[in-house]
Amino acid sequence: MKGFIHSIETCGTVDGPGLRYVIFTQGCLLRCQYCHNADTWEIGKGKEMTVEEIIDDVKTYLPFINASGGGITVSGGEPLLQIDFLIELFKACKKLGIHTAIDSSGGCYTAEASFQQKLNELLSYTDLILLDLKHIDEKKHRKLTGKTNQHILQFARFLSEKNVPIWIRHVLVPTITDDPNDLRSLAAFIRTLNNVEKIEILPYHKLGVYKWKALGLKYPLEGIEPPSEESMEMAQRILNGTEDTVPLT
């Protein structure tokens, strides 16, 4: 079983608990305006790697991973586009007692029977989902990513019903995803889920802009700067439910 891999980070510290072996898969259906990995979009590209090759490499880092309470995280791109590969990879990880996590937007989630069957099998080997919720407003989500968010919210509800532990991730982009009322709506949705262990606000950054230019693409958020500390604190208060109650307008 082979996967299409964009890159690997061997000592990640921001993609789940402990030190993580982070695999960035190739291929994504969303076209997020702030994407810092635009070079992962194209499906079927990247380096082909077998499960055995990855596991052999992971083993060399296991002493550090285990000592830190870490594990393996598959990010992207969108990992669920390569669900068969993930199933075999996570099966192998579980034989070694490795904690497994998936960083996903749910952008390819579907209720189609064969996908559901494979997803349920994958989740039996998955300890944590880092769920990227880009925008709660459907129209704004379409503008931001090029796709609807309805199947993504359905994915979140599915994970809640299955009681799969999730960390919610939301990228705070000034003028795009930082409207207080949108954040309150997102917070209200998150409160309907019973499996949320953590909520992370990620500040928008411009570190991937050079990739857009290298790909010959026009970067759509020119002129937008990272959020202020005050904006980050405001978003944290709203999404974590510690804001003074302010009615939606």
UniProtKB/TrEMBL annotation:
<keyword id="KW-0004">4Fe-4S</keyword>
<keyword id="KW-0670">Pyruvate</keyword>
<dbReference type="InterPro" id="IPR013785">
    <property type="entry name" value="Aldolase_TIM"/>
</dbReference>
<keyword id="KW-0456">Lyase</keyword>
<dbReference type="InterPro" id="IPR034457">
    <property type="entry name" value="Organic_radical-activating"/>
</dbReference>
<keyword id="KW-0411">Iron-sulfur</keyword>
<dbReference type="InterPro" id="IPR058240">
    <property type="entry name" value="rSAM_sf"/>
</dbReference>
<dbReference type="GO" id="GO:0046872">
    <property type="term" value="F:metal ion binding"/>
</dbReference>
<keyword id="KW-0560">Oxidoreductase</keyword>
<dbReference type="GO" id="GO:0051539">
    <property type="term" value="F:4 iron, 4 sulfur cluster binding"/>
</dbReference>
<dbReference type="GO" id="GO:0043365">
    <property type="term" value="F:[formate-C-acetyltransferase]-activating enzyme activity"/>
</dbReference>
<dbReference type="InterPro" id="IPR040074">
    <property type="entry name" value="BssD/PflA/YjjW"/>
</dbReference>
<keyword id="KW-0479">Metal-binding</keyword>
<dbReference type="GO" id="GO:0005737">
    <property type="term" value="C:cytoplasm"/>
</dbReference>
<dbReference type="InterPro" id="IPR012839">
    <property type="entry name" value="Organic_radical_activase"/>
</dbReference>
<comment type="function">
    <text>Activation of pyruvate formate-lyase under anaerobic conditions by generation of an organic free radical, using S-adenosylmethionine and reduced flavodoxin as cosubstrates to produce 5'-deoxy-adenosine.</text>
</comment>
<keyword id="KW-0963">Cytoplasm</keyword>
<comment type="similarity">
    <text>Belongs to the organic radical-activating enzymes family.</text>
</comment>
<feature type="domain" description="Radical SAM core">
    <location>
        <begin position="14"/>
        <end position="243"/>
    </location>
</feature>
<dbReference type="InterPro" id="IPR001989">
    <property type="entry name" value="Radical_activat_CS"/>
</dbReference>
<dbReference type="InterPro" id="IPR034465">
    <property type="entry name" value="Pyruvate_for-lyase_activase"/>
</dbReference>
<keyword id="KW-0408">Iron</keyword>
<dbReference type="InterPro" id="IPR007197">
    <property type="entry name" value="rSAM"/>
</dbReference>
<dbReference type="Pfam" id="PF04055">
    <property type="entry name" value="Radical_SAM"/>
</dbReference>
<protein>
    <recommendedName>
        <fullName>Pyruvate formate-lyase-activating enzyme</fullName>
        <ecNumber>1.97.1.4</ecNumber>
    </recommendedName>
</protein>
<dbReference type="GO" id="GO:0016829">
    <property type="term" value="F:lyase activity"/>
</dbReference>
<dbReference type="InterPro" id="IPR012838">
    <property type="entry name" value="PFL1_activating"/>
</dbReference>
<keyword id="KW-0949">S-adenosyl-L-methionine</keyword>
